[in-house]
Amino acid sequence: MYLRQFLPSFRCGSARAALVTPPLTAAHLAFRLQASIGSFVRASDQNLGHLETQAAQQAQALLRQATATAAQQKADATPPRCPVCGPPLSRGSAGHARTFETRFGAITVQRARGYCKRCAKWRCPADTALGLAESAGYSPAVQELAALLATKMPVAEASLVLARLTGIKLPRTTLDREARRQGERAQALRRQLDAQATAAPKPERTQLELSLAPYPMILQLDAWNLRERDDWGATAALRRQGQEPARWHWVYTGTVFRLDHCARTAGGRPVISERGFVATRQGLDGRREQLHAEALRRGLGPAAGALIIADGAVWIWRLADDRWPQARQRLDYHHAVQPLAAVGRAVFGEDPAQFRAWLKPRARQLKNESAVKVIRQLEELQPRLPVGARAGEVVRREVNDFHEHQARMDYRTGRRRGEPLGSGPVEATCRQTQCRFNPNSDFGKRVAMREGLMA
Ligand SMILES: [Zn+2]
What we know:
Number of helices: 18
Radius of gyration: 31 Å
Shape: elongated
Structural class: alpha+beta
Helix content: 55-70%
Number of strands: 10
Strand content: 15-25%
Largest sheet: 5 strands, mixed
Order of helices and strands: HHHEEEHHHHHEHEEEEHEHEHHHHHHH
Strand order of the largest sheet: 8-5-4-9-10
Bound molecules: zinc ion
């Protein structure tokens, strides 16, 4: 009874599969794989890696053939309508070949072409159906691989890794162009999502989240320098006009997450289960709006307040006052200890033991008690230093700095509420991207120095 019910669909399924993967070839592949296994077992100089490579190569041909058949059928089934504006195309003709690289090798598809009167353009609807963007000679899966690798390593390296892992050969110039195109797509997508996030009706959003326990939203901001050439080919012309082409650019970075998404692993390592990122070269305004939209997407609207954590840079706090005036502000704890350390070094000079003996209790006091107590001690230090001494100058400067950030140094309350005291997450984000773009930067060294100081 059941069998009879399932029989027709079963038959239909196998018939479709037969069209995609011709059984003869599949049987042939199975036969060849069996032969490979036989010789692998007998060969004393082959480990499993040999078989893995060989099997993947043998299967590749079959997968390529299946992909080609599927792509052709999809192209044939695509209605001759304009993929941009919809109406039927005129002056249609078939048999326009397009060859492109897929995950399993190059394939060629014959497509129909027609003219859209409204767009005043020739269109191949099959290209849109298959996901082949107009300028790319690569399938969607290859486009994704290229974009992913290019975000992780320089394109020359990405080209070699891609060839080694998949057999797909993408020259570095092509990979570069592809990564750029994907970057532009990602930017356009972000703009679209940001517009949606900031335009979403507020009541609906609040209603959706009302049932949740209140959580504060944490925003962290930082910036770093990227060395990148703009104005290709225009260097000489710019210099003739007396302009030195800019090579270093600020990348404004930010991260946003909910406090109730912070936890610890079994080993005690802090983790954040969900967080959003922004890293942009589109200036302070670009970052401010992108981070705000990202924060809205992640639940800033119904959040029980927001907390901004960053280092001492003036522009960050100005931006915070301007964009998120209701948010609480916190100076990254490490950046608060730095001026303390500067004072300690100025006063105790070369004596590391005395320096540490002075710094440690004050750093602890800053974290567990209050900034006011620490500032008072620094102020008491001042008159005891000889007039005109450099140490006196340092102490005065750092005391001013402390006063400036005093309201951002309530670490005791932060600890009581289980909030982060430092901007580690955004710094880690900066470090990751910085290592990708400026592999020889001294950023890593600076981080190591700072961590050494804190140890
Ligand atoms: Zn059209």
